Amino acid sequence: xxxIMASFLSTALLLLVPGILTEKEHGxxxxxxxxxxSIADAPNExxxxxxxxxxxxxxxxxxxxxxxxxxxxxxxxxxxYTENFNYGPFLESVNGVAGNNAEHTYWxxxxxxxxxxxxxxxxxxxxxxxxxxxxxxxxxxxxx
Length: 144
Prior knowledge:
Ferric Hydroxamate Uptake Protein, Chain A, domain 1; alpha+beta; five-stranded mixed sheet
């Protein structure tokens, strides 16, 4: 009986002490997000935000939308996306500019890494990409 009681108390203790069964909180990491329209002659817009440790880009974009008055246009959403059943979130529009299949335009996700400054095209989208600290996220409106 005492073995069962000791096992029960050990399990209860693990549940009551924060952080024992969960990954240690590492705070937040800074990232920059730049909106580029390669088709129109529009000025680039750059925003800074923080992302939680191992957080996804979509979460950082939502946070930026909620906390930054310049990014949060009260008339409309600064970005829209749809959920694809197979592939997850798909970025549709930024600043009211939407991709168009007939015109072969879309929003491309690029990342200038904070490690060595190279620009990469991640093999995942905004719902799966996990930015590293000091990454520079580039949402580029372009043609295919």
